[in-house]
From TrEMBL:
InterPro entries: FAD-dep_OxRdtase, FAD/NAD-bd_sf, Rieske_2Fe-2S, Rieske_2Fe-2S_sf, Rieske_Fe-S_prot_C. One of its GO terms (cellular component) is membrane. This is Rieske domain-containing protein. It comes from Candidatus Chloroploca asiatica. The keyword Glycoprotein does not apply.
Length: 507
């Protein structure tokens, strides 16, 4: 039997074409400019257009070209930090509002799917939090009690384990009424809705500067200037980092595989486990089989070089838990923006009240982004929102201060790379299709050898705050270990907070 080729892009990009849009070519005056055409930006634009606001969306890449296209699209109220820790960090009322907001986000997505007739495989199902091997049942008991105090009274402890199809799994908490969807099909539906309501979308438009005055001015690489009453930065990591969001957002890379599964051998479900880092699982139907989607093996961006081993561990874990899982059909990675308390930072900037941000969506970015869209749309039209204070970007760190300090020390330690030599002694050691940091005297140079053997050189200093970037051989990117900026093989910025491409190397 001929072995199938593993796809190295996400399952969502396989066989699905998103709508395309032209760049902005002239100056534009608009009520609200939204920067970012992933789920955060498009959801916000949709909510604003629904409220009758003149809105335009801008992205330097295609629709869904960022981390929305790399998600596993769990629509869930199960939290990255869990309800017990969220209750400690944000109090009982904070945990209750968190639960309320995520369930409302799932309901909102379902309503939009219905109203816009979006064929995006939306379905409701149970979600499970499984006990990892060696874990104590008390962990689940405490989490159930905290979830119920947060208002999730239907969360149940299944202490004898869970049976899915013919698979017997460990004890778990069951969270009913969760959901999943195809994220890119959903984005396509949002685009059509935005345009139908009079909104505009521009791709291939790179915003280089945000000047936040009474009228917000956005400058672009190609010259056109955008003037808006308000701007929403929905770029995963804000492109305007003057308030230091990068000091409170901690990026991590996460890895995903899709394995062949016989059709119908497992029911639809969502799952996380209590491992650290945790695993997460869902099913996606394909034409003549199902795909078991499994993620995990997270690490700080730019601080690991064993990507292949991480994919292998995921496959081993998946086949141990689900014996019917077959060969790996897909594998990809994405970036997660974690916050100090597990809740996203969404709302108006403290210094620039006409600038709004959506960032720090953690591992449940689909619901966090939808919550942010609802909050910001309400705030722009002057409607009080019950979750605005919970997610306010300028909120106090509180009990999350320890994590801020720990992450800050980790960032400082990365600057010692400035004193070290390169990854290799000479560019001659770099194979085709790979990259490495090379020392040119006191300079550090990010050197990539393309598949034809040609060398491409850039400065290895991240254009955000000058950390030395690291080569990611799996994604073929340059990743900043300090604040998570990412650049393609040739040095073009693909993730902020870096505002621009890697600089040319000077011999």
């Amino acid at each position: 039997m001929q072995r199938q080729i593993i796809q190295t892009t996400s399952i969502w990009h396989d066989g699905f074409n998103l709508p395309t849009y032209s760049p902005l070519t002239t100056d534009l005056r608009i009520a609200v400019a939204v920067v970012g055409a992933g789920i955060a930006g498009l959801s916000t634009a949709y909510q604003l257009a629904k409220r009758g606001i003149q809105v335009a969306v801008f992205d330097d890449g295609p629709i869904g070209g960022g981390d929305t296209g790399n998600t596993t699209a769990h629509l869930t109220g199960m939290l990255d930090k869990g309800y017990a820790e969220t209750e400690y960090l944000r109090g009982t009322d904070g945990a209750r509002l968190t639960a309320e907001s995520h369930l409302a986000a799932i309901d909102m997505i379902e309503r939009i799917v219905r109203d816009e007739a979006i064929a995006c495989d939306f379905a409701r199902m149970d979600g499970y939090l499984f006990l990892a091997p060696g874990g104590e049942l008390r962990t689940l008991t405490e989490e159930r009690d905290a979830a119920q105090r947060a208002g999730l009274n239907d969360v149940a402890l299944l202490s004898e384990g869970v049976t899915l199809g013919n698979v017997r799994l460990s004890p778990a908490l069951r969270f009913p009424h969760q959901a999943h969807f195809h994220p890119l099909k959903y984005l396509a539906g949002l685009c059509h809705g935005i345009e139908r309501m009079g909104g505009q979308i521009f791709c291939g438009t790179h915003i280089t500067r945000v000047n936040a005055e009474a009228i917000v001015t956005l400058e672009t690489t190609d010259g056109p200037v955008i003037r808006a009453d308000s701007v929403v930065l929905a770029t995963h990591m804000p492109i305007d980092d003057t308030l230091g969001y990068s000091l409170r957002i901690f990026p991590a890379l996460t890895y995903v595989i899709g394995l062949h599964l016989p059709t119908g051998s497992l029911p639809n479900f969502l799952a996380f486990d209590t491992a650290d880092p945790y695993h997460y699982v869902r099913i996606q139907a394909a034409e003549d089989h199902d795909v078991l989607i499994v993620g995990g093996e997270d690490h700080k961006t730019g601080q690991a070089d064993d990507m292949d081993a991480r994919y292998q561990r995921l496959a081993q874990w998946a086949r141990t838990q689900f014996p019917l899982a077959g060969e790996v059909l897909y594998r990809w990675s994405g970036q997660v923006a974690n916050s100090f308390d597990g809740l996203a930072l969404m709302g108006p900037d403290l210094v620039s009240p006409h600038v709004y941000v959506i960032t720090g969506q953690t591992g449940i970015g689909m619901t966090h982004s939808t919550i942010g869209a609802m909050i910001i749309a309400d705030q722009i039209v002057g409607i009080p929102n019950p979750w605005a204070e919970l997610y306010a970007p300028g909120r106090a760190t509180g009990h999350g201060l320890g994590e801020v300090v720990s992450e800050g020390l980790n960032v400082l330690s990365q600057y010692t790379d400035l004193l070290k030599g390169g990854d290799v002694a000479s560019a001659t050691e770099i194979p085709a299709g790979s990259g490495a940091v090379v020392g040119w005297g006191p300079m550090k140079v990010a050197t990539y050898r393309d598949d034809q053997g040609r060398l491409h050189h850039c400065s290895a200093l991240c254009t955000h705050l000058g950390c030395i970037v690291a080569w990611n051989d799996s994604a073929k990117t340059w990743d900043c270990p300090c604040h998570g900026s990412r650049f393609d093989s040739y040095g073009t910025v693909i993730n902020g907070p870096a505002p621009s491409d890697l600089l040319p190397a000077e011999e």
